[in-house]
Amino acid sequence: MANKWTERQLEAIEARGSDILVSAAAGSGKTAVLVERIITRILAGEQTIDRLLVVTFTKAAAAEMRQRIGAAIAKKLEEDPGNLHLQEQMALLPRADIKTIHAFCLQVIQEYYHLLEIDPAVRTADPAEVKLLQKDVLDELFEELYAEENNEWFLNLLETFTASTKDDKLKELILQAYAYGTGAADPEKMLIEKAEDFALQEDQTIDACKWFSFIREGVQNHVEYALYQLEKAFFLSDGGEFDGYHKLLEKEVQMVKNLRAALDEPYKEWRLAYIAVDFARLPGYKGQEKELAEQIKALRDDAKKTLKEKVGEVYFAYSAEMQAELIRNMYPIAKALADVTLRFMEAFAAAKREKNIIDFTDYEHFALKVLLDENENPTQAAAEIRQRYDEIMIDEYQDSNIVQELVLKAVSGYANGENNRFM
């Protein structure tokens, strides 16, 4: 049975001449729409399969996509066996660029080995081998750090993140920082910048933090939720036997509204507005609408709990001055963590070169090095690859990291002012 596409799905299938970003919930058919777009264009004779780059995130997804396209072409050939265009597409399908992002990156590396300082005979290490090598490199790095003179900075880092004589927690954190850093186009720059975000001057308040906007957003979300619950309780208590509840809730709603308004002011005002929110004891209720009374209490209790546990205990446990001082104290720790992570990154890269191996992270960064210059402008190699494709189609785009995004953007028509990405 043919798919019954929605109006918006059909729009994504049939749209031409622009970048297309499909935003929909998980399981809503985004991949099916992508596949149908390919099939529709091929069957209409407007596209050849070898002029598409279709990127998936698993080999199984790539294989299934290829099979579905092949089945659609085969079905159409049964109806029109003399169609030379469809015969050609069926012949081209096995070699079509329908592959994982890592397979595409490896293809770029293999074509442009001469631009990279790696041996053409390099092999891809399996994940277990990578994990073991990381452990060995990290153990050796820690031995060096323990033995270094003037290593107080490292010992302070160790003391901050470990609760015993073991250093496993810090090693695990460094591996996490490494994974986070390599998700950026320039891992070294990104890790240094993240550490510098803690560099708060003595005359600066917490409002000067680079990530202060995220703090405000977090507080706002919880305050809005608490206010929503309180207002529901307030409206439920209007009239009838809940006059005592209603008057009290009216005051509480106003106090939380004052807190919400204070979030447009400096942090110090937030805390004062939060402290001013005072939940008095609810008056006793002896009426008949006990179920409604319990509903009102539950809504109010939820608001109180949200403000206490998700706002007060998280964001207002300390004064504005103490918060700023805590951030300043974290700066040398953050800097030390970035330094150790960068030393690990360098040592791990050296160990891989010695063994003549690369991993999937290397795929992405080597491909990026081929495709973008130091100013992040597309290279001649990117221009050459770009000429091969009419459209770049990316499945599960929401799972892409910035490196993968830059790789695929470099080989799209973006640099020429052509919008040919389907995401």
Strand-helix topology:
Blueprint: H1 7-14, H2 30-43, E1 52-56, H3 59-79, H4 84-92, E2 97-100, H5 101-111, E3 123-124, H6 127-147, H7 152-161, H8 168-181, H9 187-196, H10 212-236, H11 243-262, H12 267-276, H13 290-315, H14 320-355, E4 357-358, H15 360-371, H16 380-386, E5 391-394, H17 402-410, E6 421-422
Parallel strand pairs: 1-2, 1-5, 3-4, 5-6
Helix pairs in contact: 1-2, 2-3, 3-4, 5-15, 6-14, 7-14, 8-9, 8-14, 9-14, 10-11, 10-13, 11-12, 15-17
**Major β-sheet strand ordering:** 2-1-5-6
DSSP, total strands = 6
Helix content: 55-70%
The rounded distance between the terminal residues' Cα atoms is 26 Å
Order of helices and strands: HHEHHEHEHHHHHHHHHEHHEHE
Structural commentary:
The structure is a single chain. The chain has 423 residues and is mainly alpha-helical. The protein contains 17 helices and six strands. It has helices at residues 7-14, 30-43, 59-79, 84-92, 101-111, 127-147, 152-161, 168-181, 187-196, 212-236, 243-262, 267-276, 290-315, 320-355, 360-371, 380-386, 402-410, and strands at 52-56, 97-100, 123-124, 357-358, 391-394, 421-422. Helix 17 (402-410) links the parallel strand 5 (391-394) and strand 6. The model has no long low-confidence stretch (mean pLDDT 93).
Question: What's this entry about, in short?
Answer:
The protein has helices at residues 7-14, 30-43, 59-79, 84-92, 101-111, 127-147, 152-161, 168-181, 187-196, 212-236, 243-262, 267-276, 290-315, 320-355, 360-371, 380-386, 402-410, and strands at 52-56, 97-100, 123-124, 357-358, 391-394, 421-422. By secondary structure, it is mainly alpha-helical. It is flat, with a radius of gyration of 29 Å.
